[in-house]
Write a structure and sequence with these properties.
about 190 residues, mainly alpha, 7 helices
């Protein structure tokens, strides 16, 4: 979870990665020295690519409140690691996540423009655009959940098949295990 809300007005920002897994460090334990130059560079490159509207917030935080700059950089690093894993292991999920990053930035930018707009007609137009973008984002998130469910159903089916095979071959499995246990310590083990 990026701590943009702690960097600026809490009503203007929200964390862009609400589903981010991973342990969280105690806020008081975070120090700017914890960031290596490579980690910082990679995180800023990610923000520049997918969330350019938030780059200035990070730069401002680094200059004004370095201790509050650490959390977002570490959270972005975790997010990029997760995306790298998806890219290698689950290309479909990776594509969904990249689209999610794009839609998140789009809604952030539109909301920021809405808050700064003074003309009512412009505000109404921006509100409609935000509604469309949020609807797209919702649909994408549902596709991700459907994809996860499909994968889980496949895993469950494979597990059921394996359990069925093991039950059918119980006597052979038990014989092998008994034989294995009887030879432990006899000097006849493989290793």
């Amino acid at each position: 979870l990026l701590a943009y809300s702690s960097l600026t007005n809490a009503q203007q920002r929200r964390p862009p990665f609400p589903d981010e897994p991973g342990p969280r460090l105690n806020e008081s334990s975070l120090r700017p020295e914890m960031l290596g130059p490579e980690m910082e560079h990679a995180a800023l490159k990610f923000v520049e690519t997918y969330h350019p509207g938030r780059l200035e917030d990070l730069r401002h935080a680094k200059a004004a409140q370095p201790e509050r700059y650490v959390r977002p950089i570490m959270d972005i690093r975790r997010r990029t690691e997760l995306l790298n894993r998806f890219e290698k292991e689950d290309p479909e999920r990776y594509d969904f996540e990249i689209k999610q990053e794009t839609l998140d930035e789009k809604t952030f930018t539109l909301a920021h423009a809405y808050r700064n707009a003074t003309d009512e007609k412009e505000k109404q137009n921006l509100k409609r655009q935000i509604e469309v973008a949020v609807s797209e984002h919702f649909d994408l998130r549902e596709k991700i959940k459907e994809s996860e469910l499909k994968r889980m159903e496949g895993d469950l089916q494979r597990l059921k098949e394996r359990l069925k095979q093991r039950k059918a071959n119980k006597s052979e499995i038990v014989k092998q295990r008994v034989s294995q246990l009887m030879t432990i310590g006899s000097g006849l083990e493989w290793d």
